[in-house]
Amino acid sequence: MRIALLGGTGDIGQGLALRWGFDTSHEILIGSRDPERARTKAEEYETELDSRGIETEMKGFENAMAADRADVVVLAVPAYHLVDTIEAIDDRLDDETTLVTPAVGMKRDEEGFHYNRPGAGSVAALAADAKPEDVPLVGAFHNLPADGLANLDREFEWDTLVFGEDDDAKSIVTDLADEIEGLRPLDVGGLANAPEVEAVTPLLINVAVENDDLHDLGIRFE
Amino acid sequence: MRIALLGGTGDIGQGLALRWGFDTSHEILIGSRDPERARTKAEEYETELDSRGIETEMKGFENAMAADRADVVVLAVPAYHLVDTIEAIDDRLDDETTLVTPAVGMKRDEEGFHYNRPGAGSVAALAADAKPEDVPLVGAFHNLPADGLANLDREFEWDTLVFGEDDDAKSIVTDLADEIEGLRPLDVGGLANAPEVEAVTPLLINVAVENDDLHDLGIRFE
Question: Is the CB of residue B206 less than 8 Å away from at least one CB of chain A?
Fold first, then answer.
């Protein structure tokens, strides 16, 4: 499988790149608006994996070039860049491409972080409205701590919630999640169930802020 | 400590009554709008505990009578009865009473359960607006599966998120949560952080509905 991580130079992109690089043999393409930055980070990830005995080749591209070549395109960008990013790549997508959104909208006040729910209903709904109609969209990887994911010394047992309208696309993403050691994908239905998933991320941050002995938290349903 | 469980005949009330009965020696008062029903359920809980070798006395009262006698008053009622219930007992509360809300507002559509966020900001904010000013309010016990809690054969490792503006009251509720075997209280700041906590409950139900092998789910932050 060829996976493009758009915004793959950012924190959650880095975490997914390193974990898929470490745990699988999928081909990972690092995307960025700045192709030079994408190449630099791809080399960094290669070096990190090489230091752990994993020989892999990661290539960096401008986002549209990365998306053009991929079977699965992960929109690992901030929520406020989600629609821009889709519009910049939409002519590179087709019904054979699975689009994945891990994006969450948050705002902060004096008390903590909060879910900033868009008028469309969810961040995923913004992506669903912006994407070409025939391209399937799946939500996944929302509630993972980027630093914990990127630290390959960190072992975990985390769940990731997978939602979407296209069962084949959900199945592809579920398998990709399952291949990451310690990550358990759980089905959470369709796009309408996105808000409650996206709202968990600010909660994870608030729990980590308020409890000194907890850091880089994921969740487990049990 | 004397704990009144208002709506203690309902599912989450039953779970808390049985767990505190099993794991602690606190005095538990079962409250209901119907005192006869409260007495019947209190006897049921006694019988269940007795069958497990725990001798305890639980008494049933009309809600206001139960609240009058308690140090901690848990509003284990549906969200749409929360304000009514507070108004029916408010002259029995004072600044020595800790009021606890585990209430969550949910609605359901074809896709699943959703957080029904009140205009006040959260269900807890409705309670904060309705209660006498000097009575401290704490949110806790939102994301626990009632059936799993009430089944004393079920072992678990669940977290419960505790929020509120009064640190002493939070500390009392945190200790009460900690005394339930397998339950870990986690601080999640003030009342403004309530919506993300309340929104987890419909998510727990959606995950259980969509995954055949998962039932009566709680969450664990790790």
Answer: yes
